[in-house]
Amino acid sequence: MELKDKIIVITGAASGIGKAMAIRFAAEGAKKVVCVDLNKEGAQAVANEIDGVAFGVNVGVEQEIADMIDAVENDIGPIDLFCSNAGILIAGGMEVPNEDWQRIWDINVMAHVWAARHLVPRMTERGGGYLLNTASAAGLLNQVGCAPYGVTKHAAVAVAEWLAMSHGDDGIKVSVLCPQAVRSEMTRGHEDSVAALDGLLEAEPVAEACLETIRNETFLVLPHPQVLEYMRKKTENYDRWIGGMRKLHRMYGDRRNPQGNVS
């Protein structure tokens, strides 16, 4: 898919990866970029920069996603590309309270489900569309010190896989973004976390990687290319891989440092 003259929605667009995608996709000649964020003022500031439109939305609430999709489709036009990018991080393990598990589940997983629920039937009816879901390298490799994050990002990858295999014949293209650490407010002060062992990327090259993936209509977006090799090592010898992760846990697990690769 080329983005020229397309209508694009990006959640988590007030900062980080979402902001970088909004600016980059607008530069490609998108017809309109819709900037969505819980921080409405931040989303509006980005929208003002690119002649876009802003919505204040809590993606952890299905009705707010549904209402935003309705408004865009009715007032702006049919959505060609929906970037379900917003996410949060909660550190800790099994001791994390139930309410925090539920909150991160709703934002990191169900927001993808709800966007697809309310958009895929419309896209299918008009012959196709594109979904770009932000997960994380943690969704492929897990995350030391952050069980809720690792678990929900695994689920986010599974949602994208299911959509791709179940709706590909309907003309729905799906990609999933799985970076390691990306510089953002979430990584500020945690630049030495385990997720940054392979380097801390700026948001702009991540957005560029997303653009290239959308253009080629491939599934995985890996701004840190070494993640692919880690995946191969994981599947080649699971026990050895877990042994390596235990070593990382001994080195980093007690720090409770956030991964910081969400927008």
UniProtKB/TrEMBL annotation:
Query: Example GO molecular function term?
Result: oxidoreductase activity, acting on the CH-OH group of donors, NAD or NADP as acceptor
Quote the Gene3D superfamilies the UniProt record gives: NAD(P)-binding Rossmann-like Domain
- What is the E.C. number? 1.1.1.340
Question: Mind listing the UniProt keywords for this protein, alphabetically?
Answer: Oxidoreductase, Plasmid
Oxidoreductase found in the keyword field: yes
Q: Which CDD domains is this protein grouped with? A: SDR_c
InterPro entries xrefs: NAD(P)-bd_dom_sf, Sc_DH/Rdtase_CS, SDR_fam
- EC main group: oxidoreductase
The record's family statement is:
Belongs to the short-chain dehydrogenases/reductases (SDR) family.
Q: What is this protein called?
A: 1-deoxy-11-beta-hydroxypentalenate dehydrogenase
Supply the source organism for this entry: Sulfitobacter pontiacus
The taxonomy runs:
Bacteria, Pseudomonadati, Pseudomonadota, Alphaproteobacteria, Rhodobacterales
Name the gene.
Answer: ptlF
